[in-house]
C-alpha cells in the first residue's frame, strides 16, 4: 500500500456510495513475458518507445518453433505488450510477421493486439475498424473472445450498448456462440445508461439462450439496485443468487453496504461490513473507501474512525480527501486526541509514503510547527470501483 499512489499521483478520488463494476472481456490467455510489465508501463509513460522495442524484439527469435510446441503464445505476448504501450505499428508488424517467425497466426494473436486497446479511451474506438481490417488482411476468423473485445469497445463508445446489439446477431449468423460475459457487458452498459428496461430484455435473452448468469452478471444487477433501488431489493437479489448456488462476494456486499448508506441506515451497513469474514469474504480497498466516505459525508465520524483504523491495520487506506474530511470532522466534534491518533497512526504505519500533501494532515491536528489547516486543493470527487 502506498499513500502517494492512492492519492496525489492520480488525483484524489472521494469515493461515493455509487459503485462501478469492472467487467472483463479478455481474449485468450497470453503468457507472461520475461519482461517486467511495470517496467514496460513506465517506459511507455515516459515515451521511451525505443527502449520498449529493444526489450521486446529479441523475444521474437527466442520463440522459435524448436524451443516450444507453438511459438504463437509468446509472440502474442509481444503483440499485446506493444499494443498496451500504444505502439500499434509494431504490434501490427509483429502480427504480419508470424508466419516468417515459424508461428501460426490465429485469433489468439489478433485478440492479443485488440484487447489492450480497450484500456485506452484514445485507442478503444479503433477496435471495430482494426478487427475488420486485420481479420480480412490475414484471413482470420474472429472467435468468441474477439467479439467480446468488440462488444466492450462499442459499449465504451458513443451509442453504447445499443450499438453492440447487432454484434449478437452477427455472431449467430457466423455460428459463434455468445457468452455470458458478452451479455453481461451489454447489460452493464444499459444499466449505466439508465436504460433498465433494455437491460432486462438483454437479461431475458441471455436466459432464453440457456446461458446461466454468473457472479459478475448478478453483481451488475446488484449495482443497479444499489444505485436506483433500496437495500431490500439488493437483499432479494442476494437470496436469489444463493438459491442458485452462487455465493455473493465482497463486491456484492459492497453494493449492499452502499445501498444501506445511501438510505441513511449506517448501523445496518456496519453490520454487513463487520460480518463479511463470517460470510467467507474480506473487505477490499473499495469497501473501506466507500464506507468511510459515506460515513464522513453524513458526519458519522466515530463510526468512520472505526472503519479507518481497521483499514490502516489491513494496509487499505482511503484517499487523502476522505481522510482529511474524517480528521477535520473529528476536530470539529472535539475529538482532538482521536484525530491526532489517526494521523500519527498513518505516519507510523506508512513512514515512507507519508510525504507531500499527506503531511498537511499534521497541520489539521496541530502536530506541525506552523499549525493551521487549510483546504486540500487536490481533493475531488469521482465514481468508485467496487473491486
From TrEMBL:
Keyword line: Repeat, Transit peptide
Entry GO CC: chloroplast
Keyword ATP-binding: no
Record bears the keyword Transit peptide: yes
Renumbered ranges of PPR repeats: 179-213, 249-283, 284-318
Swiss-Prot/TrEMBL GO biological process terms: chloroplast-nucleus signaling pathway; mitochondria-nucleus signaling pathway
InterPro entries tied to this protein: PPR_rpt, TPR-like_helical_dom_sf
Family (UniProt): Belongs to the PPR family. P subfamily.
NCBIfam families, per database record: PPR
Protein's name in the database: Pentatricopeptide repeat-containing protein, mitochondrial
Organism: Ananas comosus
